Amino acid sequence: MSPSNPPKSDVALTHPDRLYWPDEGVTKQALAAYYAQVWRLMAPYVVNRPLALLRLPDGIKGHQRFFQKHAWKGMNAHIEEIADPQDGDGEKLLRISDFDGLVALVQSAVLEIHPWGTTTDHWERPDMITMDLDPGEYVAWTAVLSAALEVKARLEARGLAAFVKTSGGKGLHVVSPLAPKAGWAEVKDFAHSLAENMAADRPETYLATATKAKRGGHIYIDYLRNGRGNTAVAPYSTRARPGAPVSMPLDWQELNAVSGPAAFTLDNVPQRLKARPKDPWGDFFDAAVPLE
Ligand code: ATP
Ligand code: MN
Ligand code: MN
């Protein structure tokens, strides 16, 4: 990526000074500027994928919060509607295909972007697996780091590559690229059994069921991001949470130095991109293999 050559968009930002993260002073215009900086890195994970969008028209301190999978009134024309081939008569889904689409999301107060794990070129064959590590309240951050390494080892043992990112919330996401071959049921079953195996081997540490009761001291290995229609927050997407955190792709080598799940924010990402111009997920799609 060349930060000195950001993409341009003709999509008009109305009220560019509107505050999306008021405590941090992050405006609509600042959000658009951030996405221009990361666009080339982010594009493969958001373009041509069905999207679920968290839209907060009055910013993160406002009362309106819509988790949106379908068009809304007055939606910008750069956000496309697309029919789900398995749901011919159903409400259309949403997609963007270029930087104008991303700016249209900013204009529409979309503060979180959650894509499906596949593109609309091959709906029924996912091109990634997302293992979402959800620590309970009393889990130390170092335990989350160990869990990510454990998931990586198990994915690699099955011949898959593994990449890691902060969630921008409470945990980490370990993501494997797939050559689009296996269907949703197979991919979800695979993710489920990986989670169950971890919980069976270390029941004092890991959980493979969403039961909240036992969560406190455990890390829930949330495999449920992998069903048809399920989503996970996109790499580089902001989160609608205090501090304006983003879901940040990392190098495995730097993981131990990362202070927490929300360590990267709109405030410090520009600095990071300058200091580490190499894309930590640069090989993501080249590393894709079919799930066997
Ligand atoms: P954390 O690290 O805090 O777990 P996360 O991104 O892993 O962050 P959530 O933000 O809790 O987890 O979201 C998990 C998934 O649930 C999202 O990827 C999204 O698909 C779905 N989701 C999030 N918010 C909503 C909502 N308001 N309604 C329905 N589904 C949602
Ligand atoms: Mn999570
Ligand atoms: Mn989860």
Automatic annotation (TrEMBL):
It comes from the Bacteria. Residues 27-281 form the DNA ligase D polymerase domain. InterPro entries: LigD_pol_dom, NHEJ_LigD, PaeLigD_Pol-like. This is DNA polymerase domain-containing protein. It comes from Rhizobium lentis.
